[in-house]
Amino acid sequence: MQKLIKYITLVVVLLFCVGKINAQNDKQQSFNDGWLFYEYDSTKENVDTINFKNWNLVQLPHDWSIYHDFSKSYATTPNQGALPGGIGWYAKKFRLPKSYDNKFVYIDFDGIYRNSEVWINGHYLGKRPNGYISFRYDLSPYLKRDGSNNKILVKVDNSKQPESRWYTGAGIYRNVWLTTNNAVQIKQWGTFVEPKIEQSNNALMGSVTTSTSIENKLSKRGTYLVKNIVYNNRRVEVASRQTTFSLKDKENLAKTTIELNNPELWSPENPNLYRMQTYVL
Description:
single chain; mainly beta; Immunoglobulin-like; Jelly Rolls; four-stranded antiparallel beta sheet; 16 strands; 5% helix; disordered N terminus; Glyco_hydro_2_N; glycosidase; Beta-gal/glucu_dom_sf
């Protein structure tokens, strides 16, 4: 029974331990600093999205509800924490460095509660009703790359209350990231890991088959290299494999299999985890 539990645990751990997957020269940086916030009040003037009059500087993650006093009279009711919902606006100005030229630039929101709408330099990017899942927008077609300011606006509407069985908060309550990629890039959430383990002559043998979706943003042609590196719990490289593939379509699939000799099993006493990095070269 103990061996069976360890077998299942290793499969689950290997399946979900892909900590960082990135293509060569991909870069992700925190985008939490330098945001302005305005809490909308229908009894006051219209929202000033030009000069940002009466906006306040905030640090993300940010929840505007917690800055209010508790009251059982709010539409959220005590069941949702007795704090108000409402409508809030966020804004940020930023300039792109020269190194971002010819790069694809994305903004990743880990979570906004809720009904968020996003604009970049006046261009509407979309609406996300759900408040708990992450999402991404491609900023590339609308960015100013001449050293002048870019402006991003986010509207958050949590005014329809009550709408939950617990306290939800309101605003950009999780991290925000700015991510740059090359034209040939690993698709977001585009890596699938399939682990296997066998016992032979009293020794454990493991293998990890990785399927990687490669996006070809500019319809380039050529031969590329996909390299996978596996690290153990001590961040020591324990295995690697690289495979060449021909880039033909807008989306390509590259598969590699890595052998692991005597993989370290997970247990409460020894919570061994593996980490994989994937590169496109």
